Amino acid sequence: MVSRRQVRELLDQGLDYRTIGERLGIPAGQAHLIATGVPADGGDTVTADDRRRSGAQPASQHLANPPTENPTSKEMVREWIRSRVRADPQLREATARRDAVPGRIREPDVGNGLAVLTREHNRIAAMVKELKTLPGHSDGGSQEQISQRGQLVEMIATAMSRHETIENEHFWPIVRRVLPDGDSWADGAAQRQQQGQETLAALGEHPADSEEFDQLVGTLISQSHQHAAYQDHLFLELHRAMPSGELEELGETLRRAGSQDSSR
């Protein structure tokens, strides 16, 4: 058991509580408690007299809440995982079968325009989620994973281009007409589209195994989330403003446009 004398001797040598804790094999907060009798996370329970005790610090909360460490970021952990995969035939087979294409999303049996657009958004969101899940060059991803990230970016760029073309032709004109602030909504969306296109264009200029690519992927993911939140809010406004018949008609128009685009 660590004694107060041991901790005090190390304090006298000029060591801080974190270093003392490492040397004695105890948490820094426990070292503080042993030396002073005052808990590091005492908060309002610590009196002025307690704070004047030898070894006490003006602020000690950080000693009670040391920074966490993610073991999966260590190379030895990654190597252990790889060795487990190599030793397991089923895991090797599953890894070999996996590609960058996300699983199929079950399409709802509804046909109004907002449902059609939501379905398309979900398809793109699934690819973005897969992109976020795969480790890149900066996170120690394998060559296969890095290659898959590059493929996903290309797929996202293609899907977004088709989706935005259909929206610009058939959806945003209706938004401008139906909502009192429709012009503002449509202009805001156009600005977000432009930002996304610029990010995708920049991604095309960098190899998938570069830090620049990984940074731009982070930007793309953030933009995707912001765009989704923007249109979720817009869809609520349209749901209130448009009669169900018009929403059904919009859905048919969007489905027809999507079918024509897919057949090209």
From TrEMBL:
Residue intervals of the Hemerythrin-like domain: 113-236
Location of region: Disordered: 39-75
One Pfam family, short name: Hemerythrin
Alphabetical list of InterPro entries matching this protein: Hemerythrin-like
Listed name of the protein: Hemerythrin HHE cation binding domain-containing protein
